[in-house]
Amino acid sequence: MKRIASILAATTMLVTPAMAEMLDVEKDELKFGFIKLTDMAPLAIAYENGYFEDEGLFVTLEAQANWKVLLDGVIGGQLDGAHMLAGQPLAATIGFGTEAHIITPFSMDLNGNGITVSNDIWAQMKEFVPHEDGKPVHPISASALAPVVASYKDQGKPFNMGMVFPVSTHNYELRYWLAAGGLQPGYYSPADVTGQIGADVLLSVTPPPQMPATMEAGTIYGYCVGEPWNQAAVFKGIGVPVITDYELWKNNPEKVFGLSAEFQQENPQTTIAITKALIRAAIWLDENDNANRPEAVEILSRSEYVGADAEVIANSMTGTFEYEKGDKREVPDFNVFFRYNATYPYYSDAIWYLTQMRRWGQIAEAKPDSWYDEVAKSVYKPDIYLTAAKMLVEEGLADAADFPFDSDGYKEPTPASDVIDGIGYDGKTPNAYLDSLPIGLKGAQIVDGNQVKG
Fold it and tell me: What are the record's GO terms for cellular component (predicted)?
């Protein structure tokens, strides 16, 4: 009923001057893919609130089995676009894994991930974690995990953890957390794409919804994943989230909406229309201090979207996050969909992902700073985003003050105080940033066999 009402309202508004100019979309029937995660919310809301229909688009949303199937669907044309890991368009464009030119005009959210360990590992970590008033002091450093990993190594047992995909934010965040605590998460090389060369902690891929069960079975001892799969471990009583990515790197970028460059070139007006609808959804998700989040939780809990219990989704989507059972804390910015320019596709966000690919050997050889800038600009498309934003402002559906119309595409440098290891980030100087990180490839270093050389 809500969508029908929205369509009727949109039809009525078409006679007003603000809505008089509809985009002449080249393709009006579209299929978009997503993975069952909380941060697919802009797609669900754009659909349920009728924002796609307002733009003359008739959209089908379809859950995908995993990130590879989703990417292959966009490349092959079975999907017109998708909720993607931010690393996927970048990796595909530079030819790491599947090669294809994928672009993004829209960043879907900030924050939203966590790192969870099993109850047994948490019990072993706890003695190395500072406490105050009987509760652990957050953020929790991976230095508290290091003695546990060392004891496993002494026993000849590998220490296994899960992440969702080799070019996922989750892989890079888990690696960042481990390295900041003095643990080596391992390197990739052209000859060995396991990412486990020289590793203290062995990371492997597990699809997000399977994370809790895989940890419960003892196959992995912890994982990094998006919601609701950290809170699911708390509700099931099988694990403890030790840190959120908000604490790891405040207001870090997460998913993007990805399309093939070919689709955008053939359907430029359609791409702008899609971006308009997604921006409106993001505004709705954050407006009035998250007043719409309870309604969003109910929508996401439906089987066709995330399909997790509403109570579990609400635990992180409505301004709180629960660590140990009963230790629920205020984290109002755990999920951000619009504020802080969350939806703007910043070049500096793209470059951070590229630095992490280089740091761990997915980019095998050194690249000049200019290369990072060029790749970022070939994939992230703020010009499309700002065209859509300008139209929404002209239509009275958005406020011009909420968009960075004068941006050069780069964020202000991230201050050291916003990152767990106290190392700031400036997207305009990627090689200097790589050199500042104690663990990881830098300069002309390469991975040769099991050795870092250069």
Answer: endomembrane system
Contact indicator for 241, 233 with CB cutoff of 8 Å: yes
The chain-wide mean pLDDT, for the chain, equals 94
> Do 261 and 385 sit in the same domain of this protein?
yes
Q: Give the DSSP per-residue string, 208-243.
A: GGGHHHHHHTTS-SEEEEETTTTHHHHHHTSEEEEE
19: number of Cβ within 10 Å? 16
- Of the candidates 397, 372, 378, 359, the one whose C-alpha atom is nearest the C-alpha of residue 171 is 359
- DSSP string for residues in 172-221: HHHHHHHHHTT----EEETTEEEEEET-SSEEEE--GGGHHHHHHTTS-S
Of the candidates 165, 328, 330, the one whose C-alpha atom is nearest the C-alpha of residue 241 is 328
- DSSP for 89-121? HHHHHHTSSS---EEEEEE--EE-EEEEEEHHH
Average pLDDT over residues 181-210: 96
Is 196 domain-assigned?
yes
Q: What is the C-alpha separation between 436 and 284, in angstroms, rounded?
A: 39
pLDDT, one tens digit per residue, over 146-158 is 999 999 999 999 9
pLDDT tens profile 424-452? 999 999 999 999 999 999 999 999 999 99
First to last CA, the chain: 64
Domain range for 176 is 113-251
At residue 266, the pLDDT reads: 98
Assign residue 32 the CATH number of its domain. Answer: 3.40.190.10
CA 299 to the chain's CA centroid? 20
The span from the CA of 75 to the CA of 92, in Å, is 10
Q: Domain for residue 28, yes or no?
A: yes
Same structural domain, 163 and 213: yes
Instruction: Specify the pLDDT at position 387.
Output: 98
Flag whether 408 is in a domain. no
> Do 222 and 209 reside in the same domain of the chain?
yes
- Check if the beta carbon of residue 260 is closer than 8 Å to that of residue 379: no
Residue 316 and residue 275 in one domain: yes
Contact yes or no for 152/163 (Cβ under 8 A): no
3-state secondary structure 343-354: CCCCHHHHHHHH
Distance CA 37, CA 18 (A): 35
Q: Which residues pair with 419 in a beta bridge?
A: 249
Confidence of residue 21 (pLDDT cuts 50, 70, 90): low
Q: Is the peptide bond before 139 cis (omega within 30 degrees of 0)?
A: yes
Calpha distance 439→423 (Å, rounded):
12
